[in-house]
Amino acid sequence: MKTEYRGWPNCYRLTNGQVDLIATGDVGPRIIRFGFIGEANVLGEIEGQIGTVGGDTWRLYGGHRLWHSPEAKPRTYHPDNSPVRVDEKRHGLTLTQDTESTTGIQKTLEVRLSPDANHATVVHHLRNDTLWPVELAAWALTVMAKGGFAIIP
Predict the structure, then answer these.
(1) What Rg, from alpha-carbon coordinates, does the chain have?
(2) Which of 7, 22, 95, 102 is an S-S bond match for 33, by CB 3.0 to 4.6 Å?
(3) What is the CA 118 to chain-centroid distance, rounded?
């Protein structure tokens, strides 16, 4: 379901009655919220950057995102400040950014929320749109809220 979240007008909320997840279509691909309904976000948010769009400056924003490694400036720090394509699916979303102009790599997140449990599955895709081979690895990063913790199987 399309919704507004903290200044970003093009966000998408998944819920199963226990938890909710919000991904933004305004920047990314990025999941900006995950938590029990009516309770705090377990993902960290960077105040002063939430709701911001556009520009050539790299921003942390918070939440969960996909990078490619190994880390190297400026390649890894391509700003994800532009809108992404969002495809809604049953119990999920696919978030796809335009191919990065500086790297030729396209990032996609497939997000599925369990219909009856308090967990989500995120599948990460990197696609090389250049004419030559590129050696890299998917690097999924999550900013957690202060004082929180995550259990990752």
Answers:
(1) 15
(2) 22
(3) 19
Residue 138's domain comprises 2-142
pLDDT of 103 higher than 80:
yes
Q: How far is C-alpha 51 from the geometric centre of its chain's CA atoms?
A: 14
The letter for the amino acid at 107 is: K
Q: Which two tokens stand for residue 46?
A: 């960077």
Q: Does residue 151 sit within a domain?
A: no
Q: Residue 119, Cβ neighbours under 10 Å: how many?
A: 14
Write the pLDDT tens digit of every residue in 17-44: 999 999 999 999 999 999 999 999 999 9
As beta bridge partners, residue 8 has 5
β-strands 120-128, 2-5 pairing: unpaired
Question: Is residue 153 predicted with pLDDT exceeding 90?
Answer: no
Residue 72 is predicted with a pLDDT of 86
Q: For 77, phi and psi rounded to 5 degrees? A: -95, 30
CATH assignment at residue 117: 2.70.98.10
Q: What is the pLDDT of residue 147?
A: 86
In the DSSP assignment, the letter for residue 43 is B
The pair phi, psi for residue 130, each rounded to 5°, is -85, 180
